[in-house]
Amino acid sequence: MKANQILEVLNQFKESSYQSILINGSWGIGKTKYVSEFQENHINSCYVSLFGKKDIDSIIQELYFSIIETTQGGRFKKHLTTFREKMNTVDISYWGMSLSMPLIANIEKALNKELGKKETYIIIFDDLERKHNDLGIEEILGLLDSLSKISNIKTVLVAATGKFNDENTRVFDEYKEKAISRIYTVTHYAEEAPETIVGKQVWKVICRLADTLEFKNLRTFEKTNSFITEVVDVLGEEIFTDKFTEDDLYRMCFAAVFYIVEHKGKMELLPSEGENTTEKLRQAVYKAGDKGVIDYLCNYILKNSLDNDMSKMVFIHIKNWFDNGTYSKEDILNIIHSINSYEPEPSNFYSSEKNVLKVIEYSREYIKTLERDDEIRNIMSRLLPALAWSEILDIDFEISNEEIISLAEHNISNSINLQKGLHENRLDAWHFSVESKRGEQLLKSINDVLQTEYYHQLIKEINLLFTDKAYDNYHYLRQFQTSIIAISDKTLREYIIKSLKENNFFFPLPSGEITNELWNWCHFINLIIKEIEDHWNLKGLYEEFKTYNYDLESSLHDKMLKHRLNVLFRNNN
Q1: Cα–Cα distance between 380 and 310 in angstroms, integer?
Q2: What topology is assigned to 5-186 in CATH?
Q3: Considering 347, 350, 383, 561, which has the largest number of Cβ atoms within 10 A of its Cβ?
Q4: SS3 55
Q5: Is the dihedral of CA 211, 212, 215, 218 positive or negative?
Q6: CA 197 to CA 552: how far, in whole Å?
Q7: Cα–Cα distances in Å, from 276 out to 170, 416, 441, 476, 491?
Q8: Residues with Cβ within 8 Å of residue 30, at least 6 apart in sequence
Q9: Dihedral Cα 24, 30, 33, 39, nearest 10 deg
Q10: What is the pLDDT confidence band of residue 92, given thresholds at 50, 70 and 90?
């Protein structure tokens, strides 16, 4: 369930037959926020943190004080003296453990007197996983069980059981059934939580990036918000222009925080292909110094979403700023100033008009007589200056952008390298002197064609692997899966969906005797179909995929196949 549903659970709990419940979920997902919100709005309740508690006596002491504070008029203050006197006077043997619980009876009498027999008092115990090692899990569960025997007291235990060590897990599993009536598991933070934390403006920029990264800790958003505030306070808001944008700063701050906090400064998103030499070399390049780290952050965390690639020059300072707190305001502002003031000069600036006209004419003839092996980057390096000078001298270049793309069709296709990701196959404006509006339009159009051609070739290669049953090669599946969210072109999406359906979703039916490689391929395809449906908002695609395979299973009457499909689809729902 989502974290905000905790409020609904606790409100229902007051009237339910349950005496004690557990709310379980990972750190930072929002459990404490919502149980605290409930407690603050319900006078007949109190909150006790188990963080650092060494013994049951200290818990009961805090519980007693909490009840005094939350009860009208503070009428329990007269019990303080007797509380201290009785603190170590009564021992109760429970589950073989000797527990000192002198005030359970006092609490019952006081509550009955203060609230009346019909009132329900809810005690919330938080941070079970953060208790001191000297305090046993069984002791806490014993206390909950004793409290539950008091007719008008109910208890809520809040924990991140995934943080238990092996011994605590064993003890908890052994005793939880007796002490806990119902367990609720929080699997997702509240949908509105990130935007509430970072604000609407920042969330609009980073939401799609955050959705592609697997993490549940809301503290990452809190740290991002605090870091953005710190950076803007230091650098000032006047640094932002259409060249160095607020959005780019938000993206870089988020990526730095995520990289350091969630992945501990490790490049966990890099694909791994075992002993594959190419992948080892690729990882070595990414790990080679600051540039490798920034390239990794841009490619794998930011999905190449920076408005201006020149912002990368600031990125390393942003990353180090969050990582160890060191930065030079002067250096950063100087870099930002150079980005904002950058105005590329047209090439051939010192040439005569006659010579410039020769450059334009040469470029016209060059594009008309392209060789298939001419590299698209070299083509653009020769073409873009000519387009700029045509615009400056108000001369018709005579060949339209559409004609240029048509003439360079084979060169564009031949430039695709599927061993590299989409970003490495695109033409980066930073590498050229793009000095005219027409040049910008041409570069964008060629990048659009490159993207389409890249995915056409990628799908074709996946189909070849599928047809050849080469299920041990996941490289292209992984490249496709990691770029799903970046595909926004409607025509390209339609082509991909059509290819999937025409080729049985590239899904090898796991019937009969199968290999581990085939089963892993099935998992990849299953994940890809699910993410396509989610990110492209194609309702029913995943259900169509499941139905298609279940229909095949019905015709084959293979019980192992049915079991495998059930396991696969159940684990991904």
Answers
A1: 20
A2: Rossmann fold (3.40.50)
A3: 383
A4: coil
A5: negative
A6: 47
A7: 40, 21, 39, 14, 34
A8: 3, 4, 6, 186, 189, 190, 193, 218
A9: -30
A10: very low
Integer Cα distance of 28 and 148 in angstroms: 28
Alpha-carbon distances of 560 from 43, 466, 552, rounded to whole Å: 56, 22, 13
Beta bridge partners of 125: 48, 157
Which one-letter amino acid corresponds to residue 481?
Answer: Q
CA pair distance 154, 17, nearest whole angstrom: 10
Helix H or strand E encompassing 182: strand 182-186
Closest by Cα among 518, 517, 507, 520 to 551? 507
Q: What is the dihedral of CA 362, 365, 369, 375, to 10 degrees?
A: 40
Q: What is the pLDDT of residues 50-88, one digit of tens each?
A: 999 988 888 887 887 777 666 544 444 444 444 444 444
CA distance linking residue 260 with residue 264, whole number of Å: 5
> SS3 for 486-517, per residue?
HCCCHHHHHHHHHHHHHCHHHCCCCCCCCCHH
SS3 state of residue 305 = coil
Please provide residue 121's backbone torsions phi and psi, each rounded to the nearest 5 degrees: -115, 125
- pTM of the shown model: 0.50
pLDDT in tens, 244-294: 999 999 999 999 999 999 898 888 887 655 545 445 544 554 555 577 788
When pLDDT is cut at 50, 70 and 90, the band that residue 347 belongs to is: low
- Rounded to whole angstroms, the Cα distance separating 150 from 122 reads 11
Q: What is the 3-state secondary structure (H, E, C) of 331-388?
A: HHHHHHHHHHCCCCCCCCCCCCHHHHHHHHHHHHHHHHCCCCCCCHHHHHHHHHHHHH
pLDDT at 109: 63
